[in-house]
Amino acid sequence: MSIVSRDRKVQVMNNTGEPIPSESANAAPGQKPEVALHLDNLSAWYGDFQALHSITLDIPKNQVTAFIGPSGCGKSTLLRWFNRMNDTIFSARATGTLRMGDQDLLSSRTDVVDLRRRVGIVFQKPNPFPKSIFENVAFGPRLHMKLNRSELNDLVEWALRKASVWQEVKDRLHSPAVGLSGGQQQRLCIARAIAVGPEMLLMDEPCSALDPASTLAIENLMDELRSQYTIVIVTHNMQQAARSSDRTLFFFEGRLIEAGDTELIFTKPTQKQTEDYVRGRFG
Amino acid sequence: MSDSASNDTLTSQESPSPAERATLVGGRRRMSTDRWFQRLCIATAAASVMVLVFLLASILVEGIPALTSTLVLGTPEPNPDEAGMWPAITGTLWVCSLCALISLPLGIGTAVLLEEFKPRSKFALRAYQLIQLNISNLAGVPSVVYGILGLTAFVSMFSLFDQVREPGAAAYEIGATYYDQFSNLASDPFLSMGSEEVAERYFFVPVNARTDAPTIPKPGMQALEYVDNVLVPVEVTVTDPFDAPAEPEALSYAIDINAVPGRISEKNWYYFRLPFGRGVLAGALTLMLVILPVVIISAQEALRAVPSSLRDGALGIGATPWQVVWNVTLPASIPGIMTGSILAMSRAIGETAPILIIAGIVYIRNSPHHLMDSYTVMPLQIYNWTSRPQEEFHQIAAGGIILLLAILMTFNAVAVLIRHRMHKQQV
């Protein structure tokens, strides 16, 4: 089975979450793609409310994985467990396995600060700090790295170029970041996340507050970034998932209903609920 | 709903809906109510402004003639023409800056704890709620109550240190040097030899250099002498005052070998003792009690106003909670914190009741020189003058009020300036 979407060959899973071997653009033909994150039987709660029910899946490396599903289906909750952002929520807890390489991410001994450096996150609403554009990007490196002035300048420029916002901001690096347009702010936030050298980028509905042109810019950016970063995107926008992801996972009421190649999910979903959702019949 | 049978036909075309059937309120009446309400608001706003204008005008008319350099730089005197409030002005500056130095870090720190470090355990959550409840209640306590509390807790420290200390034992203090004061006698026959005029000189011998009274001063001992109001070390050359002096100018004498020399102390600005007594520090701490709840609550409001997306953003690139607070939350909330702190400090400057209890109405003629020095503040001095029968004192009191307002506004202007600067830097 080899469905090619936009010249990319992707790994496909069947609906029980068992990976089906397939070729990957980044792995040698015939090899399984590397796994960035491995989830086994992951359940999550907010107080007494169970938000996630026994999620088992692998997030492949250097691919774009999209989480889709109606509001409240747990996709953002799952995403926020990947870098333990849920720690900030008083009642949130999780059981099961969440592994990144050999590291158990749910362990209380996990260095959360380093984890968040390695797994960057971009939020729904652009949230630049009320500082200059330069300071926004330099914020993370200053926390994690020992850099001299010129190294920092180089790093900031590199991150801004990587987030394809350099051309627009290079002449006003020291003006306030909040003066940028929404789309530029969001790309600045991506640059901010990239600047600390992550392996993985989590995007929680990164385009829902943006106009179509900015959305397109972010989607093109994700396309460029996928060669270096593992990207997980939560989105409500079905077209976006179809356009920009290699794999799509459909969640409903805290359960993973179907996971597979994006092309398959949108053309031949095996589950009724998935079909209803992607056809726009509910949600 | 007059007709129960038509319940299902509310949406039908024939019968009008309840909204359509209702009589509408006349537009003109509504407009006039609106106008009258607006006029009422203007009247209430004008009333408070008028009172303020009237007060300011009467103070200015009465006080401007009294605004002289004597009033600013002079000391309180029984004669109103010579009376000034320099000790009160410096006292206010000492007490209020000390109060700000103590209460702002304490208040902001408490607010940061309550807002940024929410506890996970149920027990800790209860404790937080208790603290919060306490702070809200403390904000409403009359300041005179804090005065009494300050008197017990800071001035006398529950008399703890009075009872423990043995007579003659060292006091609980640092930053003070004691001297025994000796004097030669200008009329001393040994010194006024011949026609040579020898002025009276005072010598100060550090107490801890002293062994026993009759041997003072002795050769090689370091003594201090006042020359033009400055203490200068001099070498003591002769022990026995009744010995014939070899060099009359370098001599020092006890007035009387059996006399107990006058013991005086020199205190550094950081002089510290327990209990605090009626000093600047006790006053500042008491004012801290008064304004701390206001500082905490306003700082909490300011921190709460920082969007949590900023915290998430910082946490998301691996900032520790401390780094989030220091680099993101505090800078973003500083303008709000400053506003609350300005209000709190304005209250501290004008506060009279607790200071009245702590410091008492005492005749203070010197500016405070150290943390434990006695002091008076401007509102207290003004109160003191207004309570006198002479009309002249009332005038200089009005002048004092103008000075107080001027200092208050300077404080506020500086704070607003800082706030504006910080706001500009961020945005």
How would you describe what is shown here?
The complex is a heterodimer of chains A (283) and B (427). Helix content of chain A is 33%, strand content 27%. The longest helix of chain A is centred in the middle third of the chain and has 14 residues, at 149-162. Chain A has helices spanning 75-82, 112-118, 133-144, 149-162, 166-169, 182-194, 212-225, 238-244, 262-267, 272-278; strands spanning 4-5, 8-9, 12-13, 19-20, 35-46, 49-60, 64-68, 92-100, 103-104, 119-122, 200-204, 230-234, 247-252, 255-261. In chain A, strand 13 (247-252) and strand 14 form a beta hairpin. Chain A has one domain (4-278): P-loop containing nucleotide triphosphate hydrolases (Rossmann fold). Chain A has 283 residues and is an alpha/beta fold. Chain B folds into two domains: 66-159 and 277-426, MetI-like (MetI-like fold), CATH 1.10.3720.10; 173-271, no CATH class. Chain B contains 13 helices and five strands. In chain B, a hairpin with a 2-residue loop joins strand 3 (222-227) and strand 4. Chain B is extended and about 115 Å long. At the A-B interface, helix 2, helix 3 and helix 6 of A face helix 9 and helix 10 of B.
